[in-house]
Amino acid sequence: ANAIARVVSTWDFGVGANRVAWGVLARGGSALDAVEAGARWAESDLCNATVGRCGNPDRDGVLTLDASIMDGDGRCGAVAALEDIVHPVSVARAVMEKTPHVMLVGQGAQQFAVAQGFEKTPLLTDTARQAWREWQKTSQYTPQINAERRQRPGDASNHDTLGILALDAGGHLAGACTTSGMAWKMHGRVGDSPIIGAGLYVDNDVGAATASGVGEEMVRNAASFLVVELMRQGRSPAQACREAIERVVRKRPEASKRLQVCFLAMNRQGEVGAFALHKGFVYAMHDGGPGPHDRLHDSSS
Ligand code: SD4
């Protein structure tokens, strides 16, 4: 195996996703299979109020899921506003591999998923329903800078997406991003995570980037694409993430004081970097090398 094979994921629960993804890489599996497996782990993790089946709903009490997957050769697929399917990342992969399209949304995405053999399962947990009832007492949409307590079911915190990037032994990159989006969002709202170039971008010639935080800022700045393009111009992953954050701030200096935006990047050599608008963003890395395999790295402004 190639010494540089590695996997990185956003936030502390990225440790769990990385372990599963590393299992795939260590068996000689592809980066694409690795990121899908890691994202699936997060989607079924019953402790994450912002990804998959345990996610918090929108302001109408509906849980809608967004996900994307991209291979370093440019192939990509995504789903947005998908309801009642446990593994949106796998539906995104099916969009990529089995349709002439890149993205399916809402009813159409669900219809496609069912036709592909994915089971329809009512997903909103009792805890999430309870959190939504609590939220309705104030009905304020004020995203927190970071989820202070780490994503226990029913947390009032309302973001923390899994973005996962992998480099396999063949030097091939892939990435995936999966989320239930901002809790208490408007029904029908789509964030950055399923938008190729915003929440995720991968190019084997250069590197890969993913994002977490308030997705509107990533969409405005085509942010993951921006990070990859900055690496193409010679920046290190960390520098590229920092410059992308600076761009976000320049565009909306006032809003930037209240919003979290986080970027995580890896170049084709396996160098990793991250930067966040506010303190508190961590990412997890697993490379199978000596020492702790599940290092958490802090990265802040
Ligand atoms: C979104 N970026 O839907 C996602 C939410 C998120 O950490 O990342 N939270 O805007």
UniProtKB/TrEMBL annotation:
Return the PROSITE patterns for the record: TAT
The superkingdom listed in its UniProt entry is Bacteria
Amino-acid biosynthesis found in the keyword field: no
Annotated region (Disordered) at 139-158
Q: Recorded GO terms, molecular function?
A: N4-(beta-N-acetylglucosaminyl)-L-asparaginase activity
Decide whether keyword Repeat is in the record: no
Q: Which UniProt keywords apply?
A: Hydrolase, Signal
What EC number(s) does its UniProt record assign?
Answer: 3.5.1.26
Which PANTHER family does the entry link to?
A: L-ASPARAGINASE, N(4)-(BETA-N-ACETYLGLUCOSAMINYL)-L-ASPARAGINASE
Q: What is this protein called?
A: N4-(Beta-N-acetylglucosaminyl)-L-asparaginase
**What does the record give as the organism's lineage?**
Bacteria, Pseudomonadati, Pseudomonadota, Gammaproteobacteria, Lysobacterales
